[in-house]
Amino acid sequence: MRFLIYRDVKARAARGLEWVRAFFSRHDTALVGWLRIDFGREYRDRRGRLYHKFRGVYGRCWYPSATQPTIRLSCQVPGPFPCEIVTRQAPIYRQADGTWPAAARRVRGPVFEDARSGRQWKRVYGSTEVKDLDEAIVWIVAHEAFHWLRKTRQIPGRNTEVEADAFADRKLQEFRADVAAVGHGAGPGYVFRGAQGELFDGF
Length: 203
Fold this sequence. Notes:
The protein has helices spanning about 5-10, 15-25, 135-150, 160-180, and strands spanning about 1-5, 30-40, 40-45, 50, 55-60, 70-80, 85-95, 110-115, 120-130. By secondary structure, it is an alpha/beta fold. The protein has a domain at about 1-85 and about 135-180.
């Protein structure tokens, strides 16, 4: 497995990257080709100023195909931070008697229906604040890693965005608890080198 980390991420997020190293060390990475973490693609406006089209955090997980036999995880953390991540929550379903649970009254938006079963539901959204680059890395890497871990049956659950967001929220809370327990000294214990696209020492 390769770790493709943008050099400025290496310089600014030692604590988050230490979490990444420890997290991946606890799982079977045989099918993972690479994990990439960067700030996303930059664009220029008419005045030549650089900007990012997307903000906050986002990512993608590619599964193996006929031409690419490995799983690949790509995570982008353009910020700015702190930022709110819109998360997907478990939907609220109409009950068998045709009524809605009380919580449905607080949910705006359309009602969706399964054409085959006739089951109806409302989508529910929440938000998670990531305070800095370290937390952003933990959240988005955990989200994308959930898809890989579920695909390879290393963890239970359904491979959905709802469960991936919930997994990322749990890992962020664990990270915050660990940081609080050890104080604010990063102390990563491994060495970075090189520019964008090169490997970490210590991974």
